[in-house]
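This is your field. Pick holes in the following sequence-structure pair:
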Amino acid sequence: MNLCAPCASLSAPWFRIAAALAAAGCWAASAQGALTAPALPAHKLHVPSLAETVVAASRSPQPLADLVADVSIVDRETIESSGAAGLADLLARLPGIEFSRNGGPGSSTSVFLRGADTRFTAVYIDGVRIDSQATGGAPWEGIPLGLIDRIEVLRGPAGAVYGSDALAGVVQIFTKRGESGVAPFVSLGLGSHRTSKLQAGVSGASGALDYALGLAHEDSQGFNARPIASQNPDRDGLRSTGGHARVGLQLDAVHRLEGTLMANHSNSGFDNGLGNDDRSLNTMHALGLNWLAQWSSAYKTRLSITDSRVEYEMRPMPYLSDTRLRGYLFQNEWRQGPHLVSAALERREDRLQNTPIDRARSQDALALGYGFNAHGHTVQINVRHDSDSEFGGKSTGSAAYGYAITPQWRATASVGTAFRAPTLYQRFSEYGLATLRPESSRNAEVALRYTQDATSVSATLFRNRVHDLISFAGAGTCASPYGCFANTARAEYKGVTFAGTHRLGSIQLHGSLDLQRPRDLDTGKQLARRARHHATLGADTRVDAWTIGAQVQASGRRFDNAANTTELDSYTLVNLYASTRFARDYTLLVRVDNLADKDYQLARNYATAGRSFYVGLKWAPQ
């Protein structure tokens, strides 16, 4: 298996990207002599300790030190200081992630994890699965960043844990959980394109009850999303309003009840070429009810009932799609010494209403897992069988092994399979075929990691092959004379990801470099809107009472179409920010994104924001 092929080609634009990244590093080094304050706290770039727990890898809390999976964590302070326009913009600053967008925030957005299609990333909000059975994949543009407290990103297939959809990985999103006392906050922000943001919330805990409530509103006039002939030259703005609630009740030492809700409605402009003031309306909610029981020090269970909805509407063009997902999960865990055994029963019910479609299906699953961690050895094995009401059964499995060579060095290797069931639209629209098969993948990866104090370095090589890939083919047996969905394609996502953090004096450096080859195995062409090379580099430090930082994002050339005839140029962006706390309870944030006002495109003929400014003020009593 030749995993190193992506390293072989470095085009001339890529050397310019590397030079820009090196320049950012030189900026950090030159700034060191001016420092007068203590070293930067690690929270500005979240550098997790090995004692921290994560959920994404196995669906239950695990110490970071025990993981053999490739996981990134983003905390609330990192989200706030990012100034990101949306969830996808923030994720693109992590290793292995790219995105494309047809215009400004609120426009149709795709996220590519390790170069894979957006529908191959499973997304959960407080454990609630969210997905569109019309377009396939999560509604990235409809998930409000202002309501998120923490994000965990698992890179690599996880079908044996999560079932359908997790061919490329999993994104777990968490809202805030209340802690002892009462903690209110209010945040106001103003930015370019007449952007305004308002966030407010309160969280706390008293006795057996904990709670967290939050609201977020954003209004922006935006910019002309398609500045070309025949398109409406108006500004394509965004208005978004959302809220979340999370309430927990510890009934006794054994039982806990918990309810979670996130809901959001957004109204954004776009251009469809007809000269209208076209609007896209996204409405979503994710509701979860959980009963957790710690029966003994060794055995615990979790029972969850979840409901989510993704509704997309266009105006004045009459279009409406409505996806509802209902989920039931009964999870059991038994731990004895270094051994962890898990067993889960899960049911998922999907429904799509998209005139004239009104169809539903269900999947019932049994998942088993075994973990071992002792004497420097870590083993994780998972198997799962999903029975679909439409196409029958599908089994998946994964096996991973990690070995601590020294206290600092660790090597891991894993293999796994995953699948995604065809969407209800792919099967029952006028372009659909009821006989479509699930898209299936096989993944293998190896990694080497070094961690000591504030330094962490990793290299991960991966290869993920997908067969029975569903694509839009020529006319066939479906109702449409223009073409049909069919299992006609194969794809390969292969590459190497380098990532690291390091403290240089009082400067915290962090960055990643991805060399990959996402390609169509039948044509050999590069997959649309994905680069062979992309990278990030950031530096954060303190000067007097200010925390200051610089970030560089770079991407190689991409193609806008499958035939690779329409090129999207490479680009490099430089972002700067500074923040300070004053009067004890107030925090001021100032950001400049795309400092050089780079003109670039994430999708052909769709504009991006250009140089943008943002100023935010937060009140949070200490």
